[in-house]
Design a protein that fits this description.
Elements (H helix, E strand, L loop, with lengths): L1 E6 L4 H11 L5 E6 L7 E8 L2 E8 L4 H16 L15 H8 L4 H10 L5 H18 L16 E2 L11 E2 L11
Parallel strand pairs: 1-2, 5-6
Antiparallel strand pairs: 1-3, 3-4
Length: about 180
């Protein structure tokens, strides 16, 4: 069991998503403390495998700074490196697409994905290629007024390393799939 206490409610989804991709076999409970002010900073207290880790992030901080620090801690504890780095719980092409829309060059986007998001080289290439295709298909659209549509998939044959959506592994629930 992984338990995470956090000040406020701002990053509970991100903490749980990171825990789930590093430790998919463990249950994770995130306890939010909205009564604790985050005016002077943000605090995280992890408990797992009999170990405790506490970290305070003084203001100003960004979500990525916090995720990177937590990623480094979980990487050290687990001995794992995630192929998608801290890109958890979102479509991996979303970040490079946004950077393209800001006018960034492809090489700069690749560097950002490697250095700021800890993505492996092959995943950087895949995310950039998908973003380029998406960009070409949506040119001329008003991106601010567009919406993304997500389709709930109850069973997934290959739960991706970056994914934190609540699909169930198809192999383990084969007997329930006919009902869907």
């Amino acid at each position: 069991m992984i338990e995470v206490d956090i000040s406020g409610t701002e990053f509970s989804y991100d903490m749980k998503a990171l825990a789930m991709v590093f430790y998919p076999e463990k249950e994770c409970r995130v306890v939010e403390h909205p009564e604790i002010s985050t005016e002077d900073g943000y605090s995280i207290n992890w408990r797992m495998n009999g170990k405790k880790w506490k970290k305070h992030f003084p203001r100003p901080y960004t979500k990525n700074q916090i995720k990177k620090e937590v990623y480094e801690y979980l990487k050290a504890q687990s001995g794992k490196e995630l192929p998608w780095g801290i890109l958890t719980g979102i479509r991996p092409a979303k970040i490079p697409l946004r950077l393209m829309m800001q006018g960034k060059e492809e090489a700069e986007i690749e560097d950002i994905l490697k250095e700021e998001y800890f993505c492996r080289e092959d995943k950087v290439r895949l995310a950039v290629d998908v973003a380029k295709k998406e960009f070409s298909l949506t040119q001329g659209m008003q991106h601010e007024t567009c919406a993304n549509v997500y389709i709930g998939i109850p069973f997934c044959p290959t739960i991706c390393a970056y994914c934190s959506f609540s699909s169930f592994p198809a192999g383990r629930y084969q007997d329930k799939m006919d009902a869907y």
